[in-house]
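Margin note from the TA: students keep mixing up input and output lines. Inputs are the sequences; the output is the structure of the whole complex. Example:
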Amino acid sequence: MKIAVCVKHAIDETELRVDSSGMPQTSGAVSRMSTFDKNAVEEGLRLKSSHPGEVVIFTVGTGDARKTLKEALAMGADRGVLISADPVKIDSLRTAEMLSAAIRKNGPFDVVLCAEGSSDTYSGQVPPMLGEILDGAYIGYAKKIEINGNLARIERSLEDSVEIVEASLPLVTSVISEINEPRYPTLIQIMQASKKPIEELGGDQLAPSGSYQQASIISMSAQSSSRKHVLMDGSPEEAASKLIESLAKEGVLTK
Amino acid sequence: MFHPSKHQEYSELLSSLGEFMEREIIPLSPKLDREEVSITGPRRALFKQGMTQIPFPSEYGGLGLPFSVYAMAVELLGTADASIALSVEIHNAVAEGLLKFGSENQKESHLEDVITGRKLASFALTEPASGSDAGTMATTAEKKGGEFVINGSKMFITNAGEADVYLVFARSKKGPSCFLLDAPNKGLKFGEGLDKLGMRGSKTHEVILSDCRIPEENIVGEEGKGADYAKEILHGARVVVAALNVGISQLAYSKSVAYAKQRRAFGKSISEFQLIKEKIADMKTDINAGRLFYLYASRVKEMGEDFSSEASQAKIFATEMSLKVCDEAIQIHGGYGYTADDVHRHWRDARLLTIGEGTSEVLRMLVARREMARSQ
């Protein structure tokens, strides 16, 4: 089975700082493989273990994105494709166009895996766009994937329910983080990953730009939340009574 | 920190190890201290990642990376959990001993298993009545037929009771000698686990050798050279101990900075008080000095030069520095530092290492002797 996994070299949100106006400070921020993409790579490797074949990693990015490809190769993927373009300057549709062109060039693939969204912008637009452009079935938010022959059976996790759907291959699917526990590459696997091939393709040559107006992000700010602070003073017994009273007043507890 | 051409590669390796420790080791660390979980599982997982393989040649299952990369990995591990770092450090000291002094047969039969962590190793030198003065050891090894029969006991032995392989030092006809002992062995027994102040996650027992028979070919290197081998093995181990203490200090420091920022007194954060700022500045300065010291000693070792003095200096400085930093961490945390075991355990862990693997006093003697010889 031939499996494509699309990943993003994204700013590590855990190290992102927010300035006093609530704007994330991206300059100097460290980038690495988008957190949920590790689940997509892991799922690709899991599928390969029961359906021998090849796992190829695709990413749109600058030279720094090689780090993310290398991480996926260290996890066990066979080869990587770097599509050169600055992901900050292109929108989701351009990204999907470039990815799908590279996937076609290296294909055909039986399964294209993505994460439900990237850990930086989390728009979640690229996976369904890929499904549309590649003209295959698209199933989002997969929490379990089983493949038998030409048929995929997928449990997709929705807000208040779990759907079980079937689709014929080829298939584009996005996975959620609950689908698996990504493996940590060992030190020797990281060292060996340097020897695995990474093909570099020019994004604009691969997928000439359409005439449409690209979407751009006008602003992005951290979600602010305000909390109520109530200090319970006195002895532990008094404080406990005051806490119960206060919680009851807020409607959290009923007396 | 590394040579620019290799910086990226080594940083990626260390960063991956760090991520692994963050997820798999750090959450268990307070539980290891309280002896609520066993060291076996997390240590095995760490071995699988390749922690023990870093500084050894690839022909024996190692990664062939510089010693300084290994020392930095131990610093990371010291930050994650000091007990596991201690266990790994002892294990790898045995691997280094086998690599340096073992026969080809011993390397073939044991070295790859130890380097890759398939077998856990332990270093049995100290005795109830002898430590750094290894020449006075009372444990004996008597040659009988094609075997050595070992009698005596070894004290404060890390990894004892769990290890598959022991590097045992005992006095034979020609003087202190080094032996490779496979567990289990009918003559190998262990005392009760020792109740320690710190490093409580790692197992420490007395090793009792009672008519413990091992094949003659299990002598490591030349008979009578055991004390020299022990010293040489410990030089490398002392650099690693220095790195471990820098790791412990780094964690105590990070917790102190975070606490000082959030703890308020007299209407402001205590981090705004000049005396707390002084502590923070001194702690960080000392930690970085300790880090540079163990990296310097590592570099001298990598260059193939005599690094015995630098190793001892690094250990003296880093272990004493660590005690100071961890003590200040308790001070900054105030009453919570004295009562919450998540802070004072760092001091308890650090406290071992001005004693273990060469006391500060003995190491100062070694440094003075070596430096005076150098200046002649």
